[in-house]
Amino acid sequence: MPHEGFADETVHQRAWAGRPTRNDPDRLRLASVDGRTVDGGIAGDETVDDETAGEKTVDGKTAGETLVERVAGEGVAGRAVLDEAVAGQAVGERATDGEAIRTVAEGIVKELPPELFIAHGTNAEMRWEAVRDVGYHVPNERFFVRNHTSTPIIDAATWRLELHGSGLTNPRSFGYEELLALPAVTRDVAIECAGNGRSLFTTQQRQEISGTPWRLGGIGVARWRGVPLSTVLDRAGLTPDAVDVMPRGLDPHYVCDGVDYGPVRRPIPVAKALKDVILAYEMNGRPLPPDHGYPVRLVVPSWIGLASVKWVGDIEVSTSPLASPWNTDFYRMFGEDHPPEGSAPLALQTVKSAFELPWDAELRAGHPYVLHGRSWSGNGRIAGVEVSVDGGTTWRQARLRGPHVVPAWTRWHIGWNPLKTGPHILLARATDETGAVQPSRTPHNDFGYLFDAVAGHPVTVVNG
Fold it and tell me: pLDDT tens for residues 329-384?
């Protein structure tokens, strides 16, 4: 059965447009607050109010958020501030004079510096330590990439969105400029791969699974701007008896084991489409980068990332249920605990947490740190986060930063002064506003979807 992780069938060769600019070196941080070190308790108040969390610049910090840097583990010697690549693919180019290596994965346009990403074939996982120095939103150049095949380069001047099907009385199309002229909304939304955390089924639960071995970096939150899908459906004459809409991408066909499954497409119930789905054309205040859906993509809040179809070219609207391989053969739970035909198609995401520090980070004994992280849930806002620094023997409440902001994710921090040298397992356990709590174990499924167990983050404490 096809699943994530198969090789691309189509890889485009492109030439790079422009060179990256480079900023002063920065370092991965475990930070003290306002220039002060802290003891083993919770650090000073870093609560962010609703307006601050929503308006924080992509790469900046709010006023008064001063950090004293402490390098954890290897750290990052320098960071390239990447210009948006509108076309091209770099292959194996190594910079000189100590500059960072320029790398990309197969079928991905943007650069993938190894200090920011873990490459997985046609996909690129965000390193959590790479967002320690950014605000609420993940910058475009640090956002993870999930491709089934390869990133297409599309001319917005000739692109059109076709709306068709039995659920419309006025089938029609929209050009790019027509779409930009419609009333727009701006929303902070998380996009998360259904397989995020998949590798932890193996490393933590000792279970065999198939697919791209994501840790927890197959997620990102951005500020998306676009037209509500309800607006274009209304203008195309949505009928009262319409039940499903199915967006289809313009990416190359997905071919596996000799079977051509066509471009990525996935039906969405009309009720969800009308509720909060948008046709996004901006990401963090800029036109969508190619890897993230240029010129237009769907953004489907709270659902698995597959539903947020990139490079959308047409949308079918039907008065009867629609289906595609992406909700029949793929993106269902299969395995001994599920029926032979699989579970219902996956929709809502689960509760998760991650620490903003390197995997296997090295910390110094007797030095106070502030551990930072983020938690999120497809059910809504995060109500609380507990942290354990002793493998789950004891737990303390972390301090939430902006607990009443949009529900995309919540940042938190907690102080720790490690005294005992040797390996430690850090744990973060979130509870969302519905009362859902991260479990100690996720039930197995063959393709490793929706891992939501408390993830053990390994660190080593050494003599200072």
Answer: 999 999 998 999 999 999 999 999 999 999 999 999 999 999 999 999 999 999 99
- Distance separating alpha carbons of residues 87 and 400, to the nearest angstrom: 40
Could you read off the pLDDT of 65-121 as tens digits, one per residue? 222 222 222 232 222 222 233 233 322 332 222 233 344 567 999 999 999 999 999
Collapse the DSSP code of 124 into the 3-class scheme (helix H, G, I; strand E, B; otherwise coil) and give the result.
Answer: strand
Exposed/middle/buried for residue 316 (C-beta within 10 Å: 0-12, 13-18, 19+): buried
What is the DSSP annotation of 385-424?
A: EEEESSTTSS-EEPEEESTTS-TT-EEEEEEE---S-EEE
Choice between 239 and 105, residue whose per-residue pLDDT is larger: 239
CA atoms within 13 A on the CB side of 448: 26
Question: Which carries the bigger pLDDT value, residue 420 or residue 84?
Answer: 420
> What's the token pair of residue 76?
């990052």
Q: Looking at the domain assignment, is residue 385 inside a domain?
A: no
Domain range for residue 195? 160-328
Smallest CA-to-CA distance from 389 within 403, 374, 369 is with 369
Nearest residue to 126 via CA among 428, 442, 372, 359: 359
Please indicate, yes or no, if residue 139 is contained in any of the structural domains.
no
Number of domains in the chain: 1
Q: Residue 232 domain-assigned? A: yes
Rounded to 5 degrees, φ, ψ at 326 are -80, 0
Helix (H) or strand (E) holding 231: helix 229-235
The answer as to whether 196 is a domain residue is yes
Q: Does residue 148 register a pLDDT over 90? A: yes
On whether the CB atoms of residues 85 and 166 are closer than 8 A, the answer is no
- CATH code at position 265: 3.90.420.10
